[in-house]
Design brief:
- The chain has 12 helices and 14 strands.
- The strands form 4 sheets. It has an 8-stranded parallel β-sheet with strand order 1-2-3-4-7-10-11-12, sandwiched between helices.
- The C terminus is likely disordered.
- The longest helix has 21 residues.
- Helix content is 43%, strand content 15%.
- It comes from Pseudopithomyces chartarum.
């Protein structure tokens, strides 16, 4: 049976200049993976045809555009601008096939504010923020002005995991990898870092303060779902710890968060009984099908693997949802996310 038509919200691009920058800065094995994946416009259009992806929203994956802790700000700013301009060009050339989540040159806040405005002018569909920038996690107060501006715009923020990192007392940063280089970071550290970032967004009050931001979480939320009860209840059970309203968190997850299905969200080779990560999310935490969207993670998930996972997803979704719900997961929810959250522009401080 043919795969259903779909919109891909978790899809990456690696233009030649970005690949060169990765190699020049010691990222020939990004996050411990065997190699930088090959990418071209032609290969992306090919996977879109094979997997029946009618539109792909492109983003720069980890390690983002700040490729070295000692890189001068100008290098990060320039690379960010190149990447966003390249993605904007693809969208202009193929408006029905591509969109993009713009990158920001964080942790350089003033430059990021300038880049937000340029990306909006170029037609960005939203913004891709990494879980942390050299050990400063999104939700940190130093990024408040960024989130306030994105809130003004009514932006979608696609949260993408990166290597966990911690600040040092001397102002530097170090990777936070207990197993060092034994395992590639994406196997499980990505899922933990996604949870760290989102929990910090809640505890910092960022989610409460920025009511007009919509969040898109990858990999069916990573390990966030089983931590929900713990981090929302902990403060009420342990004196002196920060309290958070569990009911309010659940409401915000239901109303302002989407979860993409990139990765191994179904158990087994065929996904025929619907078991696995997604089932735990939707059944265990009552997440509606209306908050689920498709993601391929191409090209970090290679062409053949992306098709294998797409077929497994087809079988798994058929076990969990009816046809109308599946159409929403594959296309309708993404269309609502993209069309319902077009970036607002401001003129003289007023929204237009």
């Amino acid at each position: 049976m043919a795969l259903p038509s779909r919109i891909d919200v978790h899809s990456h691009y690696l233009p030649p200049f970005y690949r060169d920058a990765l190699l020049a800065n010691g990222h020939e094995k990004v996050d411990g993976m065997p190699a930088i994946p090959e990418w071209s416009l032609e290969s992306h259009l090919k996977i879109m045809e094979s997997a029946r992806i009618k539109k792909a929203i492109l983003s720069i994956s980890t390690p983002g555009t700040n490729l070295h802790p000692n890189a001068p700000p100008s290098a990060t700013i320039s690379l960010t601008r190149q990447c966003n301009a390249y993605a904007a060009g693809l969208k202009k050339m193929y408006p029905d096939r591509f969109g993009f989540w713009a990158s920001l040159p964080l942790p350089h806040v003033d430059a990021a504010l300038e880049e937000i405005e340029k990306a909006v002018e170029e037609g960005a569909d939203g913004f891709c923020l990494l879980t942390n920038y050299q050990g400063d996690y999104i939700g940190d107060e130093k990024f408040d002005v960024i989130f306030d501006r994105l809130n003004d715009l009514g932006a979608v923020i696609f949260v993408h995991p990166t290597q966990p990192c911690m600040q040092c007392s001397d102002g530097g940063e170090n990777p936070a990898l207990p197993f060092r280089n034994k395992y590639p970071v994406p196997i499980f550290e990505f899922l933990f870092d996604s949870a760290r970032a989102v929990i910090n967004l809640f505890f910092s009050g960022t989610v409460d303060r920025c009511q007009d931001i919509t969040f898109l979480l990858p990999h069916a939320g990573g390990v966030l779902p089983p931590l929900l009860t713990r981090f929302t209840a902990f403060g009420a059970l342990v004196p002196g710890c920060q309290e958070i309203d569990p009911k309010r968190v659940r409401e915000q997850l239901a109303e302002r968060f989407y979860f993409d299905l990139a990765g191994t969200t179904f158990e087994g080779d065929e996904g025929v009984d619907g078991s696995g990560q997604l089932k735990a999310l939707v059944k265990g935490f009552d997440i509606s099908h209306e908050r689920l969207v498709y993601g391929s993670d191409f090209p970090f998930t290679r062409h053949t693997s992306a098709l294998t996972l797409a077929n497994r997803m087809k079988a798994g979704l058929e076990c969990l949802f009816d046809e109308e719900e599946r159409v929403a997961i594959y296309e309708g929810n993404a269309e609502k996310l993209l069309n319902g959250k077009r970036l607002r522009r401001q003129t003289n401080g007023k929204r237009s």
